[in-house]
Amino acid sequence: FKLPSDSFKYLGWCDIEDHDVRGNQLHCPRVREGPSEEELFFRGEEHSLKKRKQVTDTEKWQKKLQENWENCAELNLSFQDLGDLYQAENFKRILQRLIRVEKLWLVDNSLTDLSAIRLPRCRELNVSKNHFTSFKQLPKIPQIQHLSLAENNIMTLSGISDFRHTPLESLILKRNPCEFQGRYRQLVFSSLPNLKMLDGIPKLPEDCSPPDIRFFFKMCTIL
């Protein structure tokens, strides 16, 4: 049985009439696009088509102004269920407009590569529970202070030194394959001298490798 809100399930807030809500007023908006008309037809949900109408260029421009992503300072775009290509493309379009965002959550969105995205003012970024395999796939975040990458698929620490010249203070890499690398904490802190906390644990004396640590590991002891 259809629910009273069933006809609205593929609509974003911009498509609902008689309101003046703007994008920077929403903390957890749904931003993924609904299926195309062809996709709805094959799903047997063509009844949803009657809610759609031809959109003029003026209406498209008004919708863009209503989204107002450029003025968002804090935004949660987690759990968007980006299962289709058209949804993922719209999601990236919005990320490209977040030029003033300072705190951004993108948890559990099946993201794989955001290297083309730049977030110039972002200080806190949470991209936990995604599908990143490398630090090179992260967006450009020159002002980052707190970064969470928990539960991704990052195999090695290659590329982590790219954050050496950022003000990064805390980093979470829990439940990534790289966590099982030998001397994991020492390698992270040696790559990021300004880092103060890793995986929720402050920097400890044993996390600082002695100057001759490399020489020590090259030595061979015969018993």
Automatic annotation (TrEMBL):
The record's Gene3D superfamilies line, in alphabetical order, gives:
Ribonuclease Inhibitor (3.80.10.10)
Q: Does the keyword Repeat apply?
A: yes
**Would the keyword Repeat turn up in this protein's UniProt record?**
yes
UniProt keywords (A-Z) are: Leucine-rich repeat, Repeat
Superkingdom of this entry's organism?
Eukaryota
Tell me which InterPro entries the record gives. LRR_dom_sf
Matching PANTHER family: GENE 29133-RELATED, LEUCINE RICH REPEAT PROTEIN
UniProt-recorded name of the protein: Protein tilB
Q: Supply the source organism for this entry.
A: Mesitornis unicolor
